[in-house]
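Ticket #647: bound-state structure for magnesium ion.
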Amino acid sequence: MSDDFFPVPEDWAKNALMDKAARAADYARSIDDADAYWLERAQRLDWITPPTRANESSFVEADFGVKWFADGVLNVSANCIDRHLATRGDQAAIIWEPDSPDAEPRRYSYAQVHEQVCRFANVLKAAGARKGDRITLYLPMIPEAAFALLACARIGAVHSVVFGGFSPEALAGRIIDCDSTLVVTADEGRRAGKAVPLKANVDAALKDCPSVKTVIVVQATGGAVTMAPGRDLWLHEEAAKLSPDCPPEPMNAEDPLFILYTSGSTGKPKGVLHTTGGYLLWASLTHELCFDYRPGDIYWCAADIGWVTGHSYIVYGPLANGATTLMYEGVPNYPTPARIWEVVDRHQVQTIFTAPTVLRALMKEGDEFVHATSRKSLRLLGTVGEPINPEAWRWYHSVVGEGRCPIIDTWWQTETGAAMIAPTPGATDLKPGSATLPMPGVVPQIVDSEGQVLDGATEGNLVIAQSWPGQMRTVWGDHDRFFQTYFTTFPGKYTTGDGARRDAEGYYWITGRVDDVINVSGHRMGTAEVESALVLHESVAEAAVVGFPHDIKGQGIYAYVTLNAHEEPTDELRKTLVKWVRTEIGPIATPDAIQFAPGLPKTRSGKIMRRILRKIAEGEVSAQALGDTSTLADPSVVDNLVANRQG
Ligand code: ATP
Ligand code: MG
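RESOLUTION: The complex was predicted; output attached.
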C-alpha cells in the first residue's frame, strides 16, 4: 500500500492529552497489570457501587463467557447527564443541525437534556415499560433519538435501534427477534428535502408484530399520520403530563444496555448485545483517546444513530465525557456537496468523524466545494466503516484539513462496541490507509488459516486474543450462535472476520473481510489493495473488486468501477485502467474484467455488498443466487450490474 509517513505534528506532540511515551506506557500497563489498570480506568465512570473485579471472561468452550466489572452497579444515563449537571449544566450537550440549511439549529444544555430524558423515561414507564424490557426505536436523526436512548437506559430498558431507512419488513423482523413490546418512532423523517414515512412504516410492520402494545410517536415534521386508539401516543402530549424528574434505575454492570442488529453485509443480521459498565467505559475511554476531547470543543460524528458508530460516538462516549456533540439530520451532499463543510463552519466544529464512502462521494464532485468553506476550526478528522483508500486519506488530509489535522482511522465493529485499533493524535505517527495501533487492553494477532500465530511483519486473519471491556456479550436469544460465529474458527480467540497486514513497525492495515481475499495463481491479495490502486487513477471515483473462478489462475480479478462525474466509459479507458493496476501493484494484480458501474450495491450504512458483486462476477444472477437484498440502500443498481456484466 502506501509508504507515506506523517509524524505527529509538533503542536500535537506538545499539547495533546497523551504523547508517544505516555501511550506506550499506558498500553503496556493495560496488558501487564490488567486488572489493576481496568479498575483504575473504571473510576472515570460514576458508580453507585464501584466494582472490585475487572475481567472475568473466557474464550474457551468449557467456561465460555464475557464478563467485566460484574459486582459494579451504575446507570448509564446518570453517567451521561446527571453527573455533569453541577459543573456544566448550562453547557451545550447536543447541538442539532436540521436537514435544511434554512431551518434553525437547536441547542440543548445538559440541564435541558436532563429534563427531556426524564420526561421521556416517565412516558415509557407510564406505558408499562420496565427494566429488562426491549424497546425498538425507529427514528430519524432528531434530538429525540438521543433522548430516547438515554430514557431507555435511565429505566433499564434495552433499546434496539433500527435505522430509519429500513423497510417495514426489516423493521418487523427486528421487532420480532427481540420481542419488543414498545416502539418509539416519529411521524416522518426528513432527508435531503424529502419526507420519510416512518409512522406509516411502523403501522405496516406492526401487522406482523402482535407483541407490540404501545407506539410512542415524536412529532418531527407535523406530517399527517394515523394514530391507532389505545396503541399510539404522542410523546409531547404524554410528556407534558408527567414529572421532569425520573430517578435513574441502578443497573448491574452486566445488565443489558442495548441490542443492535449488524448491517447485514455478510448475511442474516445478528442481534449484538452490549451491557452496561464495560460498554460505557469503552465508549468513553476510546472517545477521549482517539479525539483528545477538550472542554469547549464542538465534536461532530456524522454517522446515523441507527449504527453502532452513532450509539458510541454521537451519544454514549461523548456525553459520558461531558462533551458537546453535534447531531445532523440530513445527508452530506444536500443541498450541495459543500454542506458538510458549511456545517463545520456554522458550528465551528473541531472534530469531524465520517466514513470513507462519504469522502469518496464528495471527492468525486471536485475540490471547489471544499475550498468554498473556511474549515479553520477543524483540528481532527476521523474515519470509520471500511478501509480508507490512501487516495481518499490524502484528500481528507490535504484538501479538507489543509495538512494540519491528524486523520483518526478507527478500526472496529458493532461487536467490539467502540474503537479497537486507532491512532491517538498526540502519540501516533500516521500512515495513510493504516488504522495504526491497538487501544489499551486490545491484543490483536494475525493467524494463518490453521490458526498459527504469525509474528513480525505478516498478513493473515485478524483475531483478538483476549477480552476487552466493550466486547459484545451474546447474540440476542442465541448464545450458541455467538460462540459458534466468533470463537470456533480459531479456538480460544475472537475471530473478527477481517484480514489484516502488520508492517515492520507493528502497524495494522485492514485488508478487508477475509471472504474478500482473493487468491490469484497462489498469491493472496486483499481486494482493498486493488481497489485503492484503481481509485488512485484520476478518472475513477470508486471501485469494488471481487474474485471469480478462473481456469488457469484459480481466481481471477473482476473490478467494478464508478467513474468521476463527466468521465466517459470507453474501451480505451478500460485498457488504461488494466495497465494502471499492473504498474501500481504488479502483473499479478492485473484485472481480468473491468465493468463500468454507475452505482455499486451498498448497505444503508454505505458499505459495498461484495457478496452480490461476487455472484454477478461468477455469472450467478438469479434472484435466489443474489440472496437477501433487503438491506441495500438502492436495490435497483443490481439490475444495471446484471445487465452490463462482462465476459
Ligand atoms: P455484518 O457484520 O452484518 O456483515 P458489518 O460488518 O458491515 O455488517 P459493522 O459492524 O458496522 O457491520 O462493520 C464492521 C466492519 O467494517 C469491520 O469488520 C471491517 O470490515 C469494517 N471496518 C470498520 N472500520 C474500519 C476501518 N477503519 N478500516 C477498515 N475496515 C473497517
Ligand atoms: Mg461484521
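RESOLUTION NOTES: The chain is about 30% helix and 20% strand.
TICKET STATUS: resolved
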